[in-house]
Amino acid sequence: MSQSSNPSPCFSNEKKPQYNYQNAATTPPPGYPQGPQYISQQPNSVVLSTKPGFKSQLLFCPSCQTNVTSDTEFENGAFAWGSAFCCCILGCWLGCCCIPLVVDNCKDVTHSCPNCRAQLAQRSRL
Ligand SMILES: [Zn+2]
């Protein structure tokens, strides 16, 4: 009794699972940029859009390209003349009407550069 058995099954064809990493992440990691770093810092310039005050202040002179402390000049503007006119109408014409023309608080202010005398800003009382 000879049993022809084949007790050695061939499992050689069984494929092992291969972890085939595909070229999914072959891009090199991005290095740090070594270029010049642009620091988001605004230039230290005074914008003239803000209303200047009635006292000397730090303003940017476009002629000198620098920030200067403005010189202030008081001039008799519409408010000073209007106040003087009102004083005349109210009867204060014996000299009181000249008070608005003398008091600096009633005058317009002109900011000018102390270096080049350029007019930087103007502030009216009205
Ligand atoms: Zn200037």
UniProtKB/TrEMBL annotation:
Region (Disordered): 1-37
One Gene Ontology CC term in the entry: membrane
Annotated Polar residues bias: 1-11
Entry's transmembrane regions: none
Keyword Transferase: no
Xref: InterPro entries: LITAF (IPR006629), LITAF_fam (IPR037519)
LITAF domain location: 41-125
One Pfam family recorded for the sequence: zf-LITAF-like
Top-level taxonomic group: Eukaryota
Location(s), subcellular: Membrane
Topological relation to the membrane, as annotated: Peripheral membrane protein
Molecular function terms, GO-annotated: zinc ion binding
UniProt keywords, alphabetically: Membrane, Metal-binding, Zinc
PANTHER family per UniProt: FI16602P1-RELATED, LIPOPOLYSACCHARIDE-INDUCED TUMOR NECROSIS FACTOR-ALPHA FACTOR
Family named by the database record: Belongs to the CDIP1/LITAF family.
Protein name (Swiss-Prot/TrEMBL): LITAF domain-containing protein
Organism: Sphaeroforma arctica JP610
